[in-house]
Design goal:
7-stranded parallel β-sheet, 6-stranded parallel β-sheet, alpha/beta, 2 domains, Rossmann fold, 17 helices
């Protein structure tokens, strides 16, 4: 009997969060079948899982219409290299993680080549560009979704779908000893700590960090005992971030986001995955976000949800304040921050609301459940 050749998987994610989710899925998937080979698009976490990268997230993770336009040549070259590698390696299945503008085009190429496509972490079709559901129906073999409300949407559209829960439930943990962690940063555990998370991409930081720094300065005028800690995302230069803080006393810490947020009394968080991480840690937060005026003007008309912050979308009501675009001013951020630092009852209510959000994110084991779905479509090939 001829032994089977180990299966080959394409995996594609264009953002740091997708790199994290994809790496966790692959870690579980490698337990069975043995010898799995993987290649594609991702970041350092996927590299650690043995993935051979054709393109890196640092070249693809951009936000905003103008920013994407400037990066079109780089993105097109990366896309062409991935398609060429698909033709060379002929994967048995593909896992596409979020990043829809790139990955839905890739799904069409894979479909034409007869490669089963598992789409893990749905594009936000419930918020905007709902027409993408048709593309997904025509190109994707199985949607694997992480929010419970997404399952009904795809079932109604006739798309095969499995809800697995949110992978961050297993991955987000505070430092085991808050006092020891803060003392190690030469911070006083008895004084209030404010975490600052300006985003994971350089374009996000350029838009979000300056008003956050100014807001920190305002807070310190009223609450000089407050301590600000900026949690630098993996693709960001911590030293460069520190220099941008100028004379405002903000400590920049790299590769310790969960420990920083878990130790904080309050977090100022750019809208995105970080808001879910902050909710899982139970830290009261103010959600902020700003893009270029042109990007906002062109994109806002297509958004069909009542809230921007993922935490509020999951809760189906406003449980955390969100200051978006023109509402995102240093004075407004400082006002909300001072309120949450001073009003203990408000902070307590928010923690209770965040506990409800955590309960809506599903049981532990999402990555293992997602890997089981992929395994169904990833049968070993007969040896040539």
């Amino acid at each position: 009997m001829t032994p089977a050749t180990p299966p080959r998987l394409l995996i594609s994610c264009g953002e740091p969060s997708g790199d994290l989710y994809g790496a966790e899925l692959l870690r579980h998937l490698r337990q069975d079948p043995p010898g799995l080979a993987a290649f594609g698009v991702g970041g350092d976490r996927l590299v650690d899982q043995g993935v051979s990268l054709t393109a890196h997230v640092r070249d693809l993770a951009v936000v905003g219409i103008l920013e994407v336009i400037r990066h079109i040549p780089t993105i097109r070259r990366s896309f062409g290299r991935v398609v060429a590698e698909i033709d060379r390696q002929r994967p048995d299945a593909a896992v596409l993680v979020d990043y829809p503008d790139f990955n839905l085009r890739l799904a069409k190429e894979l479909r034409q080549r007869g490669v089963p496509v598992i789409y893990y972490v749905s594009p936000q079709v419930w918020a905007w560009k709902r027409g993408r559901v048709r593309t997904i129906r025509d190109t994707v073999s199985r949607m694997v979704v992480i929010f419970p409300f997404e399952k009904a949407l795809y079932e109604a559209a006739g798309v095969p779908v499995t809800y697995v829960g949110h992978p961050l439930v297993d991955l987000v943990h505070p430092a085991p000893d808050r006092r020891a962690f803060l003392s190690g940063l030469r911070l006083d555990p008895a004084r209030p700590v404010v975490a600052v998370l300006p985003g994971s991409r350089t374009t996000e930081v350029a838009n979000n960090l300056p008003p956050l720094i100014e807001a920190a300065g305002i807070v310190l005028q009223r609450r000089p005992e407050a301590q600000f800690v900026l949690a630098a995302a993996p693709l960001l230069d911590a030293a460069a971030l520190q220099s941008r803080c100028g004379g405002v006393p903000i400590r920049v810490v790299a590769n310790e986001t969960h420990a920083v947020v878990g130790a904080a009394d309050l977090a100022l968080v750019a809208s995105g995955t970080a808001t879910v991480e902050t909710a899982l840690l139970g830290t009261p937060m103010v959600v902020v976000y700003r893009v270029s005026p042109i990007t906002y003007a062109l994109g806002r008309r297509f958004v069909s949800v009542a809230h921007f912050a993922m935490v509020n979308l999951i809760a189906e009501r406003e449980v955390v304040p969100e200051l978006i675009q023109s509402d995102f001013t240093p004075s407004r951020v400082a006002e909300e921050a001072l309120s949450l630092l001073t009003d203990r009852a408000r902070a307590k209510r928010m923690r209770e609301d965040l506990a409800d959000v955590r309960g809506r994110l599903g049981e532990p084991g999402a990555s293992a459940r997602a890997a089981a779905v992929v395994r169904e479509l990833l049968a070993p090939r007969p040896a040539a």
